[in-house]
User: Which sequence fits this backbone?
């Protein structure tokens, strides 16, 4: 009000929904809403009252908005299915990344040796350690990978609520020396890690877009992704990456092995 008239309110996801609605009604300014993900998608459905509240708030925000932005056709279809939005109200604007992110960054062997031996190929996962990112399926793929290609090491970069559970899974498989959890890495370390890797894997079970896949491509890593969500739209199988059956460790292992043995 003190700054003068604004033309539009841009609201991102459910947390700001009620603030956006109040501003819209107080000042008669239209809302554009960006929905980055949905509660139903993240949790494979709505299972409790908290999730129902968030789902209802998401619906309210999309209802109050004049236009809705999503980052993939997958999300456009999801919002139509969940909230019954008119198709023409949903605008697909894909995510992008800065093309100079890896300019001047080369493979740093001293950095690499902190995580793997020179003879080991690094299989890299970067992202949050939560169920829908599918890291548990990647860990489950490691015994098959190692039985066919012993000089491989899985580096899991990131943190999240599943850290202890995933460490236990690695330990139960007897793979503590072949799976390394880095914890949090800053942006510079992440750039270096991409440059040190030999394959980047994103085995999500729910993924509205998958910006990490673009980062890995830009770093010149071959990528393996699930055939789901936005990842399914970004990657054309065996053209700019490998696609695997969602939630299938056997399929993940096969795709990684094919890349490890591809010396072109």
Assistant:
């Amino acid at each position: 009000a003190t700054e003068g008239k604004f033309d539009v309110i841009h609201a991102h996801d459910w947390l700001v929904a009620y603030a956006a609605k109040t501003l819209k009604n107080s000042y008669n300014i239209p809302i554009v809403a960006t929905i980055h993900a949905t509660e139903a998608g993240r949790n494979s459905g709505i299972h409790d009252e908290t999730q129902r509240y968030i789902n209802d708030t998401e619906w309210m925000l999309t209802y109050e908005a004049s236009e809705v932005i999503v980052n993939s056709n997958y999300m456009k279809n999801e919002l139509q299915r969940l909230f019954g939005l008119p198709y023409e109200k949903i605008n697909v604007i894909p995510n992008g990344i800065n093309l100079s992110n890896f300019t001047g960054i080369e493979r740093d062997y001293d950095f690499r040796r902190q995580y793997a031996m020179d003879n080991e190929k690094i299989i890299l996962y970067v992202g949050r350690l939560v169920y829908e990112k599918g890291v548990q399926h990647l860990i489950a793929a490691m015994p098959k990978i190692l039985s066919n290609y012993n000089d491989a090491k899985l580096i899991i970069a990131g943190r999240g609520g599943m850290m202890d559970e995933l460490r236990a899974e690695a330990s139960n498989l007897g793979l503590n020396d072949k799976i390394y959890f880095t914890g949090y890495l800053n942006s510079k370390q992440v750039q270096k890690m991409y440059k040190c890797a030999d394959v980047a894997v994103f085995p999500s079970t729910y993924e509205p877009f998958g910006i990490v896949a673009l980062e890995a491509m830009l770093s010149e890593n071959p990528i393996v992704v699930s055939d789901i969500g936005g990842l399914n739209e970004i990657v054309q199988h065996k053209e700019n990456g490998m696609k695997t059956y969602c939630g299938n460790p056997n399929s993940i292992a096969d795709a990684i092995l094919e890349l490890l043995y591809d010396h072109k």
In short: The longest helix spans residues 49-64. The radius of gyration is 21 Å.
